[in-house]
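Note to self: keep these together.
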Amino acid sequence: MAEQKNSHNVVAFFRYRMNDLSAAEREEYNRTAERLYGIASAMPGFVSYREYEGQNGELLGVTEWASAEALAAWREHPEHRQAQDRGRRVFYSEYEITVCTPLHKYDFKSDKRSAR
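Structure:
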C-alpha cells in the first residue's frame, strides 16, 4: 500500500438532487454536463471526475484538482457560471458543495483486478 502525505490536491464533493425534469430539460442537462466535463477536463490542474448515485436518489459528483487555484478557475469559468445559474433555476432541487484538502491518501491495486 502506498501512502502520500501532505498532498496539495483539492477535492470537491457536489451532493445534489434533481428536480423532476421534462424530456427536453433532461436532454439540455445531459448536453450541458457533457460540455462542461469537456471544458473542465481540459483545464490546467484538473485531475479527475467521478459520479455516484445513492439508493435514496441523492447524486454525488467528486472532482479532484491539483490546487485550490485550479478549482477556483473552474468555479469562475463563464460557461460554468451560466450552468450554475441554470441549475439553480431548473435542474436541481437542492445541492451542497464541500471542498477538502486530503490529509492522507492511500491506494491499493491488486494484480488480480477484474474488468467490471
